[in-house]
Fold each of these.
Amino acid sequence: MPRNRPDLIKPSEITPYSVYLNRRQFMHQAALAGLAAATVSPWVAALPTEGAPLTGSKSTLSSNEKLTTLESITSYNNYYEFGTDKADPARNAHTLKTRPWTVTVAGACAKPGTVDIDQLIDEKQLEERIYRLRCVEGWSMVIPWLGVPLASVLKRFEPNANAKYVSFTSLNRPEEMPGQKRRVLQWPYQEGLRIDEAMHPLTLLAVGLYGQALPKQNGAPIRLVVPWKYGFKSTKAIVRIEFTETQPPTSWNLSAPSEYGFYSNVNPQVDHPRWSQAKERRIGDLFKRDTLMLNGYADQVAPLYTGMDLQKYF
């Protein structure tokens, strides 16, 4: 089956939810057995490399839609650091070294610093969140993420009154990320959110999916998931978070300002110059469906944009 053709994935190949839950239970029991003999911290033992089993409490913010298969999620990706074809990340991301890994937090906060990932993320706080996610190009997935609310991490660094925005910077390591040897974008990849978007309960720092640590092609070891902006703002392999007073630059806005605004919401009423946002094709489905306003999360996030012209602030 060609990996770069989502429309060829049959609905019958979607993993049933009951099977997925049983699989997670088995993985969780295996993880506990391994931890009993481990002498390192639980987080390091649970997430030494991609694919290690992880568990999290079920979140009430989850969608009830049918999950996209793990095969599709891990083989059809936008990750230009490893290539521009959808199959390139799965082919090339094995070169990435995800340990050791630190994240620097800087800017308008009382407690800046550089923190190891096992100090940044507490395994006991992991939540499983099933998000419907529509990419800018018109394809969509339903992914069971494992992560922590971004707000819970940011608050630990005590942002001050000057922190109006939050910027995110990805790893810049061309020797391990071959796509960075081409000037497709300005490296390293940069993204940004307004502070209230970053602090919204739906905004997630993800470290896993489908009950296991993130695969490298999906942003290991830590990435941003903003479900009403998915495909626009999905910073992977995060190494720096900064609180800023002014709107930070973002890679796609720098590259194509007429196509990508700062806000980059999923909005069926505002077309991308090269793609319509009105329709989407769920991977595994034959026919397109209507795109939901703010990716179906309008009830939760529309108040963030009260009084704003979302066609102007696209």
Amino acid sequence: MSWHTQAQLSNAALREQSLWRECREFDSQGPRGMVNGQTVISFASNDYLGLASHPLVLAAAHAAIDRWGTGAGAARLVTGTRPIHCELEQALAAAHHVDRALLFSTGYAANLGVLSTLGADNVTIFSDQLNHASIIDGCRLARARTVVYRHCDAEQLESMLLACSTRKLVVTESVFSMDGDRAPLRKLAELAIAHRALLVVDDAHNVFPEYAVPQIDGLELLRVGTLSKTLGAMGGWVGGSQSLIELLTNSARSFVFTTALAPAAAAAALAALQVYCATEGELLRARLRRLIMQLRSNHDSPIVPIIVGSEAAALRAATMLLERGIYVPAIRPPTVAPDTSRLRITLSAAHDDAMLAHLMSALHAAEVST
């Protein structure tokens, strides 16, 4: 059978299983835009604070293009390091209370670099059951043995750590990308200290600083972050001790062997970080939290999943919302487990009260409950 024929059969199977995907143009700057000629409001972006369209962020990106051009032209260890990369790394380290930070081209690449570098053959990686694909793939690239513990189950993790005689690395998201729930970070930190494990926390979807991993004496910690969600730019970063960041700089293949982050992206992220750390950032987070509480009270993140079950049901629900001017694509396997397909609603400080009311009206009309 030819490769062409095999691809056709595989594509047909995806369609039959309601798992077919296509890129759909969304012509937008901010939550309101056009899909197939229809004006819609997106509740699917990870631009949680709306900083991708902030005037200061846009101006910083424009200025960086004028000064350095559109690309870095080489890897960081060759000629790809610009002053803006170093300035952003210093600002990230200061904002997140770590010794040093290191930029990667994406958050995905950051997780691959961390886990494949530190997951040596004398290490056991303990990974949460619902960790992001980038963490899963990083574990696969590592030479370490990987053990998966039940989602947010610190008791099971403790028993696994007790039974392990190798060096230990625990990796988790702080806020989980598909469910919007939070890891028990304080308990995980205490376990890491007790069992001399390195704790790796992926902070990609954590908007609120009070939900970050606590600073505890004796904790060996690496923080992985992204510049493309809360900061509305592009890229990823890792923060930690001087020695760990130096090791990643020299050994993480997804850092060493790729072109450096575009200067405009780094400049945009730095400007967004400055907004985030200022009073305006506090106000944006307060606004976002108020919107979250209106949609789902006692929820801790802007990710609000509505699980509908089958892949076909999720597609129908997404289509019904789109007909009402609300853009929330269906999330289906392999992103989530079978029979847990969902609408993954994400809120942003760029949404206003009228947009949220429109969403809630559309959900009610589609007979989908939050």
Amino acid sequence: MGYTISICGKGGTGKTLLAGLIVRYLVSHKKGPILAVDADPNSNLGEALGVVPDASIVSIVDEFSGERANLPSGMTKPAYLEYKIEESIVEADGFDLLVMGRPEGPGCYCYVNELLRGIIDRLTKSYPFVVVDNEAGMEHLSRRTTRSADTLFIISDYSAVGLRSAKKILELAKELEIKIGEPYLVINRVTGDLERLRDEIENLGIRLIGSIPEDQGLAEISIQGRSLATLPERSPIVKAVWTICESSIDKDPIG
């Protein structure tokens, strides 16, 4: 069974940044093959990793809905749909990418979420590590897109409001009885001393595994449309995420 690393947090806190650099860490440390799952409808993980997916689960489901009569002979609808979804997985250097996508119009996510859960459950058996970049906020938890995680990173920005949002996410995960091996807090875009947030951090009740500093280098690659792979290893952001991984993922015996 694969080791699942799930990243969640409110919008704009840097979930995709953390997910992308965790994938990069695992690849560079020969932990692969890794399955990167973009479960955020905004679908930015591919860009962060420098790969372009041809299709998403949602686009396949939408297309399939209009082609029910064109099933290959002898293949059931669920089997054919799963085949098409697995065919959409992008194979890159050291990792594969699966994208959920965004539904067209005000449709229900329920069927797509159920598909994603089932596929992730099966695919985790084929990959040593699975990294899931979740939807912003708590919707993915209430719909149980995330049902379990060996490591759960809750990321917050450098503010008391962000930390309170992180606490709500953790509380909801506990209410829904989501199986979490180790939950960790990560604070992003830190520009000063964490001491002023000590009370809020301690109130969360989970371990602060590390912080990521504000870095102009990240702004530059965003402006130029480059992937996180172009950040040099000397970058303060890369160094910070490496330290986080070494203190959390690599401490596990499977590492």
Amino acid sequence: MARLLEGLRLTLRYWMQTEVHVYAFSVAANVLLSFFPFLIVSLTLARFIFHEQAVIGAMNLALRDYFPDALQQFLLRNLPRAGPMPAISILLLLFTANGVFEPLEVALNRIWGIHTNRSFVKNQIVSLGLIFICGGLALASLMLTALNQQSFTAAAALPKWLGAAIGHGITVFSILLFKLAAIPFSVLILFLIYRFLPNGRPPLQRVIPAAIGTGLLLELLKYVTALAWPAFQQKLSREYGVFQYSASLIFLSFFASMIVLAGAEWAARGHRMDAKALEESYAHE
């Protein structure tokens, strides 16, 4: 218990550093710029495989799981409808979407004591690779949900009483499937970021537990947000007016970024403690 409290104290001390807030707000600002382009690319690619209504239903489920009601309704209302998108547009949107990894790399390098950042070109190459892999994982989750939503569309052609029963079962199964897939997908994405985004190779024995713990904390953040957000949303509506949804996305991204950075700092701190213990053991021999 004392060790846990000491770890929490050190994490809180880390969170109190001004540069950590700078990194987190920088990541949040890039999320604001890149999030909607990422949604557009995901929807466009998913529509090549699934029916329009199934894709919209899957996106609705995903946004409802990650964001408060008012924000997810705003995003859904403004999603682009069916229509072809040139390949060059998709590539440009992906290039925009990878901007979040630039400040995150600097923050992770600082945490791990790596003094040299990648050049802008190298960062963009690594970031583009991560956005393809992480985006592919997110798209796979979306497609699994869309597959169930497509089954719901097929159930609508059945007799009303049977279609309603099957449709309700499919909806419940879709939610359960998405919930079960969300944490493993999040953990895998966090592992890729923690392991490959820094300009070095953090040790696996520290990266894997950090990815798992951070993934669980981000899942917990969803429920805390769902409870606390209605009152906070009123404040944002009064003070930010038409910018309330942008402010909402920035605040949510900031809180998530602080958790992601804390997970990396916990892993790096543990690695330094392991190295120190190893040095002391050698000194006593």
